[in-house]
Amino acid sequence: MSTAVAPTGLTAAEVAERVASGQVNDVPPVPTRTVAEIVRANLPTRFNLLLGSLLVVILWVGPLQDALFGLVLVANTLVGIVQEVRAKRTLDRLALISAPAARVVRDGRTRGVAVGEVVLDDLLRAGPGEQLVVDGEVAEAAGAEVDESLLTGESEPVGKRPGGAGAVRQLRGRRHPRLPGHQGRP
To answer: Rounded CA gap, 108 and 13, in Å?
Structure first.
């Protein structure tokens, strides 16, 4: 299904239709460890296993005052878990703040939306220094250059012209062969 997008963009009804049929931008979740994974990673360390086994032996055969190093074992584990959980929460908050946004034209008006709310055939506007959040056709460009080095390995930005050589293709329906998790058709 290929439709020409008018300069006014999609209507609210067309956006709702595409959302209902699942033609939205595929945004993978930010890969961070859960609190349970952090706890599991900090408990069975070599240090904890060695000192834990020595603690059990001392508790079994020795006086209790010789087992005071067990407090160091527990404190070290708790400090490691607390520090990593704090770092995780900070990174999660930073991911929300630095998440890219898209400016789409819908019903003739430009407005900002989250990247996950971009649908198939949306008309997007991008200015200098902005990140392109989807692959698609260049409808209008004035001196546009795109840094595709992460995808192609090119070291220089590539100029883009509407419909001309070097224009980006619209992807629809299937996974892109070079981008894991990317929805589209080459």
So the answer is: 13
Burial label, 39 (beta-carbon count in 10 A; 0-12, 13-18, 19+): middle
pTM of the predicted structure, to 2 decimals: 0.55
Instruction: Go through 54-91 and write b for each residue having 16 or more CB atoms within 10 A of its CB, e for each that does not.
Output: ebeebeeeeeeeebeebeebeeebeebbeebbeebeee
In this structure, what DSSP letter does residue 65 have? G
Backbone angles phi, psi at 104, to 5 degrees: -115, 155
Q: Residue 66 has what DSSP assignment?
A: G
Task: Report the alpha-carbon distance of residue 171 to residue 96 in Å, rounded.
Answer: 27
pLDDT tens across 117-172, in order? 888 888 888 888 787 777 777 777 777 777 777 777 777 766 666 654 444 433 33
Spell out the alpha helix ranges (H) of 31-154: 35-42, 46-61, 69-97, 149-152
Closest CA to 152 of 175, 132, 178: 178
Strand order across the 123-125 sheet: 109-114, 101-106, 123-125
Question: Which residue carries 């460890």 as its tokens?
Answer: 33
* C-beta of residue 146 within 8 angstroms of C-beta of residue 127: no
Higher pLDDT pick, 129 / 181 = 129
